[in-house]
Amino acid sequence: MPAVGAGGGSFTADTLSQAASAEVTSVLLDGVGHYVAMEAPEALAGAIRGFVAGIDA
Fold it and tell me: Are 9 and 27 in contact, with CB atoms under 8 Å apart?
């Protein structure tokens, strides 16, 4: 299960890990605040592409 965090540090991954029944893979985007999709769309897309590429690997 992927988690993309930014300004909150590891908060997103830590919170998701408490609720998920699967291992959480996280990416932390430095210099990005709460609105990741608006502030860093290319970095977010890269993180998503990396996760999707690893599904069938």
Answer: no
48 pLDDT band (50/70/90 cuts)? very high
End-to-end CA distance of the chain: 15
For the question of whether the overall pTM of this predicted structure is more than 0.90, the answer is no
The Cβ-side half-sphere exposure at 55, using a 13 Å CA radius, reads: 8
Ranges assigned E (strand) in 1-57: 2-5, 25-28
Token digits of residue 35: 């609105």
Asked whether residue 44 carries a pLDDT value surpassing 90, the answer given is yes
Euclidean distance between CA atoms 21 and 19, whole angstroms: 7
